[in-house]
Amino acid sequence: MITASIPSPPASWASFSIGIFTIHSYALCILAGIIVAVVLTSRRLTQRGGQPGVVVDFAIVAVPLALIGARAWHVLTHIGDYFGPAHPLTDITTWGNAIAIWNGGNAIFGAIVGGAVGAWIASRWTGVRFLSFADAVAPGMLFAQGLGRLGNWFNTELYGLPTTLPWGLQVPSDNASFPAGLAPGTLFHPTFLYELIWNFAGAILILVIERRVALRWGRALGLYLIWYGIGRSVFEAIRIDPTTVYFGLRVNIWGAFLAILVGIAVIVWSRRRHPGVEVGVYRPGREWVPDAPVVSRYTAADFVDDPDADQAEVPATSGAPARR
Which residues of the sequence carry a binding annotation for a 1,2-diacyl-sn-glycero-3-phospho-(1'-sn-glycerol) (predicted)? Predict the structure, then answer.
């Protein structure tokens, strides 16, 4: 008898309709994450001297490439689910399923790669240094990834091994991913929740550390990669959804190890190459200069005091007394 557990949402929660449009909860979770990341990153960049709103220029390029990268990584690591004898290339449905990002199946490692390419392109466009943007976006990325994991709950997917822990996830036995041979009512590790908590904790950790240490020149980026890689390598190890395996390990575990190594390398390189303080987020010669304040065409001599006026100072006409 189940006395405590996390219920899966009804299948009807996965999507809803507004007129002729179908809104997917998974997509809303991703959108919420993007909004949080953009708002937080914009604030951080502006505080460091970036032009207000410059983050939008990055989002225009990085977000689409991140989504493309996320979907591409997932499809390539689950190639049998989308292409093969049962999914002929000549069938338009095959390609439709491959790009149906709203049905779930987006790899964060692909999003990191695609988003990084987009951020680099935007950095050339805006003049903001790539590493400066990467440091600013690091905690926002973790918040976004955590919120995106809620989409897995709405889709009842990507859960872990069976467990008897009181926070085990209930999965309907008629779910397409329910493991064969297990009894109905079996609980599973809610790996989506583990990763959500881990990501939120990492974002808060970066924000707290930055109050004491300047995580610039890629150091916040490095910490993000290490933190996410460690957590993902653990959570991925207990997931049971089918995926590609190399040398006995799931492909995303190898991706997590790579993220950790890259994060360490970035921090070591940064400490050796840039031991000083970051003086600004723009490359030399591309600095943003706030617009100069508007200067009045009047001078101080053009104003006289009128004690009876509601406004203390009124521009005077040449050789004539001031009038209200």
Answer: 149
Counted domains in the chain? 2
Per-residue pLDDT at 114 exceeds 90: yes
**Residue 84 zone, left/alpha/beta (φ > 0; ψ -120 to 50; rest):** left
Tokens of 133: 């943007």
pLDDT per position as a tens digit, 19-56 = 888 888 988 999 999 999 999 999 999 999 899 999 99
Q: Determine contact, residues 292/277, Cβ cutoff 8 Å.
A: no
Q: Which amino acid is at 124?
A: R
Supply 193's token pair.
């929740």
Closest CA to 220 of 141, 292, 275: 141
**Residue 51: count of CB within 10 angstroms of its CB:** 18
Tokens 């493309």: give the residue: 68
Residues placed in the known binding site = 149
Residues 197 and 238 in one domain: yes
Its domain, for residue 227, covers 25-273
For every residue of 289-305, which 3-state class applies, written as one string?
A: CCCCCCCCCCCHHHEEE
C-alpha angle 55-57-59 in degrees, rounded to nearest 5: 70
| One domain, residues 260 and 301 | no
Residue 121, Cβ density class (10 Å: 0-12 exposed, 13-18 middle, ≥19 buried): middle
- Coil, helix or strand for 19? coil
Does one domain contain both 182 and 302?
A: no
As given in the structure block, the two tokens for residue 17 are 């309709």
